[in-house]
């Protein structure tokens, strides 16, 4: 893949940070967002990417993010919509306000920042949008009403963008990771060699982006081969 300009939301840790690292290692120019300043600084120091504090659920933050991308990079060729979190509750006890807040990040924030970035891609007649959904958005599960719904929404949105954007030379693709051993949901310290690491998802994203522009991988899931193996 030739050198491209990446914007990665939620790059301060986990899957997003792994994508920042992989893209920088491949020589791309990278800007990423996050909310935790300490973690943002760590990823910047490690990779050389430019990190900024911005909440994807806040439209003014997204406007500023896109402005910074214009000033520093002159535009965005690859948008990775990664920022997201999980709110889990059983139906009967679900807090709808918490579900709405989660949609502000996982769904409305993703749409808002893409709204702003896609205009430049359309002008150039080229671009890639990578949406991170989840296998929870392919099959519902207990306690998953809010989270699964947000990730089903991301899959549906991606299909709409594919229909709209292919004629503009813009690829929209959706990746559905199974369980990845990040600090997601405060679950720190996982390093089972048989389960997925954030770098596996980064590798999958870079592979999809490296396909000849004539080829679009609309959606794919990434599972661990044998997560039940005792190591
Ligand atoms: N881990 C899994 O098993 C798994 C599986 C399938 C899909 N996913 C999806 O993959 C994505 C990344 O998950 P992860 O496991 O890497 O989680 P993580 O380790 O918790 O990292 C999440 C990242 O998103 C950022 N973020 C969260 N809310 C944000 C907001 N409102 N604005 C800007 N940044 C925000 C966080 O930034 P700060 O920490 O700086 O706030 C952090 O950099 C999410 O969309 C998640 O739903 C994860």
What would you say about this model in short?
The chain is an alpha/beta fold. It has helices at 14-25, 37-47, 59-73, 96-124, 145-165, 198-210, and strands at 5-8, 29-34, 50-53, 78-81, 127-132, 170-177, 219-222. Bound molecules: NADP nicotinamide-adenine-dinucleotide phosphate (NAP).
Walkthrough of the structure:
- The chain is globular.
- The protein has six helices and seven strands, in the order βαβαβαβαβαβαβ.
- The protein has one domain: NAD(P)-binding Rossmann-like Domain (Rossmann fold, 3-Layer(aba) Sandwich).
- The model has no long low-confidence stretch (mean pLDDT 97).
- The longest helix is centred in the middle third of the chain and has 29 residues, at 96-124.
- The protein has 231 residues and is an alpha/beta fold.
- Helix 6 (198-210) links the parallel strand 6 (170-177) and strand 7.
- Strands 3-2-1-4-5-6-7 form a seven-stranded parallel beta sheet, with helices on both faces.
- The site of NADP nicotinamide-adenine-dinucleotide phosphate (NAP) has 30 residues, from helix 1 and strand 2.
